[in-house]
Design brief:
- By secondary structure, the protein is an alpha+beta fold.
- 54% of the residues lie in helices and 19% in strands.
- It contains eight helices and 13 strands.
- The strands form three sheets. Strands 1, 2, 3, 4, 5 and 6 form a six-stranded antiparallel β-sheet that branches. A five-stranded antiparallel β-sheet has the order 8-7-11-10-9, sandwiched between helices. The chain has a two-stranded antiparallel ribbon with strand order 12-13.
- A hairpin with a 4-residue loop joins strand 1 and strand 2.
- Helix 1 runs antiparallel to helix 2 and helix 1 packs antiparallel against helix 7.
- The longest helix has 84 residues.
- The chain is rod-shaped.
């Protein structure tokens, strides 16, 4: 009895262990494959975002290069015209103002052109404003242009107009004659709104931002505008450790101003002390990947639940089969026991019957030898039983006479 139940329990435990092991391996394999798929998808998403950001940054670089090169060419042409007409040697005249106004209109995006003489005193502007009281020493970009040994275009920090209050990017370079002597300073200003019109046409994603800054970290243009963001990155590790060492790159960083994680791509504008940068919120970059994570996670979870339910059904079926097999084996055992008991009973009955027959034979033989016998009268049925040794017709008549019915 016990060995059958032990075998059934052992077989059931073995099958249950194999099923659970198979489910565990299948779950681990499914999760591993899903994890690898999501990991490669994450890397691909980031790489695509980096490539897109790099392409956008390169377009910004080309736009900045074309814009500042055009301004530089225009200011150089204006300076040559001033030298040819010797206008710097005469006080401001309507003719000179008209010349500067025509020069300022050439690119189509300059507000005005102004000129300072060699001593740093304001000379004239294309708007005809009197700037004779202004001095170059009052403006950082004019000082830098005045002290520069070349006529390289100087890009100054953003300043606000004294009258309009609108921000502008000041630009200036020195005017030198044929022998290299400083004879004046010519400059202009560029409104950040000019770049904003270009930026808006790029249809940036939500959370993206574009920045134009000088190599020393001074921010010139930021789109979209955010007064809460810093206007100078000169003290940040990004500028000191990355932008100063490479002409282009990508950085994954946390913004010190708002604490948001961003993917930043930057490029130096060749030939200019300018850097263009494109920042994207990391949450926006990987938002499509998170949707894939949700879909894959849901699929894996549902699949594992379905597999578990199937496993549970299989285990229940095994339990039922093991119970049925246990009942069948118990029935077979009891049947065999009954057969054994029946066989024992038949054998015992046969032995008893044989013993009885032997006893009857011996009794009969004994009666025959001893000439004795017995008889029996049943008064209920009026039956008379004789043994062979005692039956005599005379005796029977005597018995019926003595024991009438």
């Amino acid at each position: 009895m016990a060995p059958f139940n032990i075998d059934i329990r052992h077989e059931y435990r073995r099958l249950r262990f194999l099923l659970f092991a198979t489910y565990a391996l299948m779950s681990a394999g499914t999760v591993t494959v899903a994890g690898w798929y999501l990991y490669t998808g994450y890397r691909a998403t980031v790489q695509v975002a980096q490539a897109r950001s790099s392409t956008l940054t390169r377009a910004l670089e080309e736009h900045m290069l074309g814009t500042f090169t055009a301004i530089d060419i225009q200011l150089r042409a204006s300076a040559r015209r001033l030298l040819e007409t010797r206008a710097l040697q005469r006080p401001s005249t309507p003719a000179m103002v008209e010349v500067l106004r025509q020069e300022a209109m050439q690119p189509g995006f300059l507000r005005s052109i102004y000129v300072y003489d060699a001593s740093g005193r304001g000379h004239t502007t294309s708007l005809g404003a009197d700037i004779s009281r202004l001095r170059a020493s009052e403006f950082e970009h004019l000082q830098e242009a005045q002290k520069s040994a070349t006529d390289r275009l100087v890009v100054g920090r953003v300043i606000k107009g004294a009258v309009t209050g609108r921000p502008s990017i000041p630009l200036a370079h020195a005017i030198r004659n044929g022998d290299g002597r400083l004879v004046g300073i010519i400059g202009t200003s560029l409104e950040p709104a000019y770049f904003e019109r270009f930026y808006k046409g790029l249809n940036l994603e939500s959370g993206s931002s574009l920045v134009l800054l000088r190599s020393d970290g001074a921010v010139l243009v930021r789109f979209p505008e955010d007064p809460g963001r810093p206007a100078d990155f000169s003290g940040t590790p990004l500028l000191r450790e990355m932008m100063a060492e490479s002409t282009a790159g990508t950085a994954d960083l946390v913004s010190p101003s708002d604490g948001a994680r961003r993917l930043l791509t930057y490029r130096h504008v060749p030939g200019w002390n300018l850097i263009v940068a494109n920042g994207q919120l990391y949450a926006t970059v990987i938002a499509p990947w998170w949707r894939i994570v949700w879909a894959v996670g849901s699929f894996v979870s549902v699949s594992l639940v379905i597999f578990f339910m199937l496993l549970r059904c299989v285990l229940l079926e095994l339990v039922q089969r093991s119970d049925g097999e246990r009942i069948l084996r118990d029935s077979e055992r009891r049947y065999r026991e009954l057969l054994e008991q029946a066989a024992d009973a038949i054998t015992e009955q046969k032995n008893t019957q044989e013993a009885l027959q032997r006893s009857e034979a011996w009794l009969k033989e004994t009666r025959t030898l001893a000439r004795i016998g017995s008889w029996e009268l049943n008064r209920v049925s009026n039956s008379l039983y004789w043994c062979d040794e005692t039956y005599f017709p005379q005796v029977e008549a005597t018995i019926w006479r003595e024991f009438p019915t």
